[in-house]
Design goal:
With about 160 residues, the protein is mostly helical. Helix content is about 70%, strand content about 5%. The longest helix is centred in the N-terminal third of the chain and has 26 residues.
């Protein structure tokens, strides 16, 4: 019996696992690069809009590097469905310049729950909105971490 995230026994595709791991490393480095180069990591004696993307991006890249070093590719049984998390996170990271970080991550949560986890849309929207709200209140309001604002925010400003 195979689990949801694995292909049936016998369809060995070590290149898919390698692509997922490399994709996570590249996206993590891209996210860290946006934080460092575009948004500013430390401004006015405090964390800037790029602090969170830098830390999370480096964390993702380091974990991907660890996974890359410990893998035994020939023994993996991987289905193409395993590419979905990397592709979804790539789209979420790529949408940050348009939607801003909080909204992009909120949309990621809603779409992931509804389309991948097959949860009801209402439940997905409520959980996504609550998660985005908590992230904004905790980091944006209480800790005063400036999240990257997207072009959409600037347009309606």
């Amino acid at each position: 019996m195979s689990s949801v995230n694995q292909a049936p026994i016998g369809s060995r595709r070590p290149w898919v696992s390698l692509l997922v791991t490399l994709g996570i490393i590249v996206m993590g480095l891209a996210w860290a690069g946006f934080g460092w180069l575009k948004y500013g990591v430390w401004v006015h004696n405090g964390p800037g809009a790029g602090f969170f993307p830098l830390v999370m991006g480096l964390g993702a890249a380091l974990l991907g590097g660890y996974e890359l070093l410990r893998r035994r590719w020939a023994a993996d049984v991987v289905g193409l469905r395993n590419l979905w998390p990397a592709a979804a996170m790539g789209m979420a990271v790529a949408s940050i310049p348009l939607f801003g970080m909080v909204l992009a991550m909120t949309l990621f949560i809603v779409l992931w729950m509804a389309l991948i986890e097959r949860q009801p849309w209402l439940k997905s929207v409520v959980i996504g909105a609550c998660t985005g709200g908590v992230i904004y209140l905790l980091f944006g309001m209480w800790l005063m971490v400036a999240f990257p604002q997207g072009a959409l925010f600037e347009f309606f400003r």
